[in-house]
Write a structure and sequence with these properties.
Layout lengths: L4 E13 L2 E9 L10 E6 L9 E10 L3 E9 L3 H7 L6 E8 L11 E7 L3 H12 L8 E8 L8 H7 L2 E6 L6 E2 L2 H8 L8 E7 L1 H11 L5 E6 L14 E5 L5 E5 L6 E3 L7
Parallel strand pairs: 7-8, 7-11, 8-9, 9-10, 11-12
Antiparallel strand pairs: 1-2, 1-6, 2-5, 3-4, 3-6, 4-5, 12-15, 13-14
């Protein structure tokens, strides 16, 4: 689905950890309220190199009297994001969005579990903020499992400490929190959650989500995941971000992460 392109003004573009930046952009008040899990395509206004916009999940959103503020959390991984990281306050960017389908909140559960790997905390952050504003979530327990490679990669922890009752942080090398993979840490606690009273939301690298799928394969847990995938157009036109899933009849189908996702039910994704 094509959205209007907005010219945004950068208010903040700060490196909060090594190669990880938090950008705050002011856009017109006509920008739609994003659903948790949606993203924007962003590029420098008037710059043709690199040509393609970059997809970035919406980390936080607020609406003022005359404009809106979008917070974007991103990691420098290539030429495009390296150029974004060099932008200063007052720079202009083109923003297309909000795009994609977000997380569904069908019914409120007693336990709401979030599992993130690295930069995967970004879409979950907006979701947690949204849930915290809901009156019917006041009695829910929000538990988050955050995994990072090392202490130098830990991001979003202060924000999560304000929003979630129970914080579980681990690193691959043990330099911060518990040593181990985030899926392993969650697996140890899984017995504490009854599937009928729990919903799981996750975002992170493919291998993390693949491991989570194996852990939950024979269980009755409901789990929605936001896929991290390279996107070119962000609107489904180029078919460059197709993933294999099971349709409602269990047959093989192909979905576009940008247009049909990025959020999917974990049990529907075909990993092999």
């Amino acid at each position: 689905m094509t959205k209007d392109i907005y010219i945004g003004e950068i208010l903040v573009n700060q490196e909060i950890q090594e190669d990880c930046f938090l950008m705050k952009v002011k856009v017109a008040s006509s920008f739609e309220n994003p659903l948790p899990g949606q993203f924007v395509m962003i590029r420098i206004a008037g710059l043709n190199d690199p040509f393609l916009s970059r997809p970035i999940s919406i980390y936080s959103f607020s609406r003022g009297k005359n404009d809106c503020s979008i917070e974007l959390l991103y990691r420098v991984v290539g030429k495009g994001t390296q150029i974004l990281a060099g932008l200063i306050e007052g720079s202009q960017v083109e923003i297309n969005g909000p795009l994609g389908n977000g997380f569904e909140i069908k019914s409120v559960k007693k336990n709401i579990v979030f599992i993130s790997g690295g930069i995967g905390i970004a879409p979950l952050s907006l979701l947690i903020e949204s849930l915290r504003r809901r009156a019917d979530c006041s009695s829910s327990e929000m538990i988050i499992y955050q995994g990072f490679q090392s202490a130098s990669a830990v991001i979003g922890l202060n924000k999560m400490q304000k929003l979630c009752r129970d914080i579980n942080v681990c690193t691959d090398d043990g330099t911060f929190g518990e040593k181990g993979l985030v899926t392993q840490i969650f697996q140890k606690d899984r017995k504490n959650f009854a599937p009928e009273n729990t919903i799981i939301y996750a975002c992170g690298p493919k291998e993390m989500l693949k491991s989570l799928a194996k852990i939950l394969k024979k269980s009755k847990f409901s789990c929605q995941v936001s896929l991290e995938e390279r996107m070119a157009c962000g609107t489904g036109a180029c078919l460059g971000c197709v993933v294999a899933v099971k349709d409602k009849n269990g047959a093989l189908a192909y979905k576009r992460v940008c247009a049909d996702g990025p959020v999917f039910n974990l049990a529907d994704i075909i990993w092999e």
